[in-house]
């Protein structure tokens, strides 16, 4: 049986995304823009498509409108291939009338939809990670090992495992133990990869490594149903550890780039890294493209600009400005004399007509984008934000918290929320 008939993919649409707030104030985590052109959800969906897995469910719950719109506009399959990207939102039923209580609870409530399609395996994915993986490899390894559940794991140096779920893996890749985000140094040392397995890793050997769960699971169909026949809410904390000693658990080791976009700082750094000469994630791989909505926008226009390590989305207009180490989204507008450094500017959802722009200016509303003679450093400017002329923004020397005009400093990064209005001359 082909992999297309064997596997159903389930992408978790994320919870409230509180650690990414205010970027998630009006959208769920998978809908957060990425790399000037994409959304986070495009990563797992593209990985599936490139792995010949074309039956994909996306489970959603919070602030889902923009995610639904993006998926509906982006992913269309021909009628003969049987492929789809289907959105399954939280819904009331005869048995439940509340929200999803966690990742496992979300899948449990949608098993009835999965049963309508022939499959042997269910591939469960996160919707807020940046990585490129050929899922055919983990599926093949899962089948060959005879495992009931396979968990994708990536090696991390001991000094960087804070906040990660760790596992102890035997030399045959069977899983012996789990520890959810351990802090005790003794516990972490006990989970260090042994010398036999360490020798097989491509990771540098200058520091001991642990294997961290990536939140990517392959379940045999019957095992998933059995594992969810309870009231447990979360895969990583309850379901997977609860199967130890009862089912055959196998680890699939992944040594490519992987970033969990769970915080404002992680989002900011992952985006800016894409502007480096050799970024850790390559969007230019012709054999594994990342798919997204085709917006049919014109090419960007740059007039008398100084640009150094910058990614610029389609349909942008940049005039006589200086940009250093920045990522600009579609329809970005930057006025003359402005200086941006270490800035993620998400752009806009639409162009303002001249009449609307003039009416807004007459009412004291700056045009969408960044005005003239602005100085902005170490910041995220969310979509449809309006910054007037002469704005000065930087988090340097300021504590995290809320500031004037809706501006927030989070994880040391200054954020102007979606649709935010920053009057001309504002200094933060």
Question: What's this model, at a glance?
Answer:
The protein contains twelve helices and 27 strands. The chain has 428 residues and is α/β, with parallel strands linked by helices.
CATH architecture of the largest domain: Alpha-Beta Complex
Distance between the termini: 60 Å
| Helical content class | 10-25%
Q: Identify the CATH class of the largest domain.
A: Alpha Beta
Model description:
The protein has 428 residues and is an alpha/beta fold. It has 2 domains: 3-273, Spore Coat Polysaccharide Biosynthesis Protein SpsA, Chain A (Alpha-Beta Complex); 301-422, UDP N-Acetylglucosamine Acyltransferase, domain 1, CATH 2.160.10.10. The protein has helices at residues 3-6, 42-50, 65-74, 103-109, 111-114, 135-145, 185-190, 195-198, 221-227, 235-243, 264-273, 354-362; strands at residues 7-12, 33-34, 38-39, 55-60, 84-89, 121-126, 129-131, 149-157, 166-169, 175-179, 209-220, 249-253, 258-260, 301-303, 306-312, 317-319, 322-328, 333-334, 339-345, 369-370, 375-381, 386-387, 392-393, 401-402, 408-410, 413-416, 421-422. The strands form 6 sheets. Strands 1, 4, 5, 6, 8, 9, 10, 11 and 12 form a 9-stranded mixed sheet that branches. Strands 15, 17, 19, 21, 23, 24, 25 and 26 form an 8-stranded mixed sheet that branches. Strands 14-16-18 form a 3-stranded parallel sheet, with no helix packed on it. β2 and β3 (38-39) form a beta hairpin. It is globular, with a radius of gyration of 23 Å.
